[in-house]
Design goal:
The chain is an alpha/beta fold. It has two domains: 30-372, TIM Barrel, CATH 3.20.20; 377-430, no CATH class. Helices cover 45% and strands 11% of the residues. It has helices at 36-40, 46-51, 72-89, 98-101, 108-126, 156-175, 198-219, 243-252, 265-270, 275-285, 311-323, 345-372, 374-382, 389-395, 401-409, 422-430; strands at residues 30-31, 34-35, 42-45, 93-97, 132-137, 180-183, 189-190, 224-227, 237-238, 259-264, 288-293, 332-334. The strands form three sheets. The chain has an eight-stranded parallel β-barrel, surrounded by four helices. Strands 1-2 form a two-stranded antiparallel sheet. Strands 7-9 form a two-stranded antiparallel sheet. A hairpin with a 2-residue loop joins strand 1 and strand 2 (34-35). Helix 6 (156-175) runs parallel beside helix 7 (198-219) and helix 10 runs parallel beside helix 11 (311-323). The longest helix is centred in the C-terminal third of the chain and has 28 residues, at 345-372. The protein is globular. 39% of the residues are buried. The chain binds D-xylulose and cobalt (II) ion (CO).
Length: 433
């Protein structure tokens, strides 16, 4: 036991508490036939909570955690503190990158040894414990070797290094019985077109992904492979721009039935979309997987990774998730970090508790929207004309421009516009949030 969280007792659901407690997140409450914990499937992100030093583009470390440093002893202390927080929060899942959990070695072999030792350390802690692994992933963006990309690096040796890294991370995810494996390509893009061959980089990334899928099947990993779209930052432009772009890419490499989406609120905003848009698009394309839950600062234009606290926005997000059928292997990963002035251990706990409560309220609002049924019914009615046999036939290929021209010529009145009733629908949403 470390003393990092000393004085903080396990968090409980207590709606009347005036102290630190869950006031809305009640894991055992049944909503829409399922325990709230099983709907939300919360995960703590190891990197933001335990590895991030509190820097910003103008300032360095503010967090001075006792486990910061590049040794195995410190990596084990970090793991001890992390699992203590998982227990305090009673959280069902966590997520990691290889680089957050192990010290970087002087060679690939040394880094791998460190990594595997920590994975076994995690395994021992997870044995009989509540917290499971939602997903593992490889950090192929922080180290300078990845500055020109991982799978899209012009240097085949970096491509090979990246393949070895993904192999190790998939092996470890499989060993810890992870529910998913995530790929986020922060440097799979470019800084300047003047030194970039886009055709080659896309091909290389496509082949890399195919090899990851081949390996998944070879080792019998049953979890989902997820891609996390983001349009830019750290690179000027990234190939995994948004859900629709990634879908086109997957189609081109025959992977659309193999890979799903891990959708992040902040990334959706950077792509010029809303979170709901990205979730709805993934639902429409049948590739919804999981979410990285956070909140962007709408003014500053960076991926600020605030904790999600805006209930009306969260209700719309969970409405889309419920419409997609809810999570199967996926979950709600708190891909969020403290503000750099929030120095105290209790701030880490408060952030997760406050966001869990906001998310629980969002979920409950979404459930009410689903159960009320008017939103869904409105959309169904709006497209009901397509159910008529003569219209359904058009989409089955049983029509042509000439046939439709004939139909229109034979009619004596124009189609009459029908109200989209946006304000009614927005007011309806407000009944539930
Ligand atoms: C970066 C980001 C990553 C991924 C995992 O914006 O969201 O932390 O979630 O690599
Ligand atoms: Co993320």
């Amino acid at each position: 036991m470390t003393d990092f969280f000393k004085g903080i007792t396990p968090l409980r659901y207590d709606p009347s508490s005036t102290d630190l407690a869950f006031r809305h997140y009640n894991p055992d409450e049944i909503v829409m036939g399922k325990r709230m914990e099983e709907h939300l499937r919360f995960a703590v992100a190891y990197w933001h909570s335990f590895a991030w030093p509190g820097g910003d583009p103008f300032g360095g470390e503010t967090f001075e955690r006792p486990w910061f440093g590049n040794t195995m002893d410190l990596a084990r202390m970090k793991a001890d503190v992390a699992f203590e927080m998982f227990d305090l929060l009673n959280v069902p899942f966590f997520c990691w990158h290889d680089a957050d959990i192990r010290p970087e070695g002087d060679s690939f072999a040394e880094s791998l040894r460190n990594f595997e030792e920590i994975i076994d350390y995690f395994g021992a802690k997870m044995d009989g414990a509540k917290t499971k692994l939602l997903w593992g992933t490889a950090n192929m963006f922080s180290h300078r070797r990845f500055m020109s990309g991982a799978a899209t690096n012009p240097d085949p040796d970096v491509f090979a290094w990246s393949a070895a890294t993904v192999k190790a991370c998939m092996d470890a995810t499989h060993k810890l019985d992870g529910q998913n494996y995530v790929l986020w390509g922060g440097r799979e893009g470019y800084e300047t077109l003047l030194n970039t061959d886009m055709k080659r980089e896309r091909q290389n990334a496509g082949r890399f992904l195919q090899m990851a899928v081949e390996y998944k099947h070879k080792i019998g990993f049953k979890g989902a492979i997820l891609i996390e779209p983001k349009p830019q930052e750290p690179s000027k432009h990234q190939y995994d721009f948004d859900v629709a772009t990634v879908y086109g890419f997957l189609k081109a490499y025959g992977l659309e039935n193999e890979i799903k989406m891990n959708i992040e609120q902040g990334h959706a905003i950077l792509a010029g979309h809303s979170f709901e848009h990205e979730l709805h698009m993934a639902r429409a394309l049948g590739i919804f997987g999981s979410v990285d839950m956070n909140r962007n600062d709408y003014q500053c234009g960076w991926d600020t990774d605030h904790f999600g606290m805006n209930v009306p926005e969260l209700a719309l997000a969970y409405y889309e998730i419920l419409m997609a059928g809810g999570f199967t292997t996926g979950g709600t990963n708190f891909d969020a970090k403290l503000r750099r002035q929030s120095l105290d251990p209790v701030d880490l706990i408060q952030a997760h508790v406050g966001s869990a409560d906001a998310l629980a309220r969002g979920l409950k609002g979404a459930v009410e929207m689903m159960e009320d049924g008017r939103l869904k019914g409105f959309v169904e009615d709006r497209y009901a004309g397509w159910k008529k046999p003569e219209n359904a036939e058009i989409l089955k290929g049983g029509s042509s421009l000439e046939a439709l021209a004939e139909r229109v010529h034979g009619e004596d009145s124009d189609p009459q516009p029908v109200s989209g009733r946006q304000e009614y629908l927005e007011s309806l949403v407000n009944l539930f949030v």
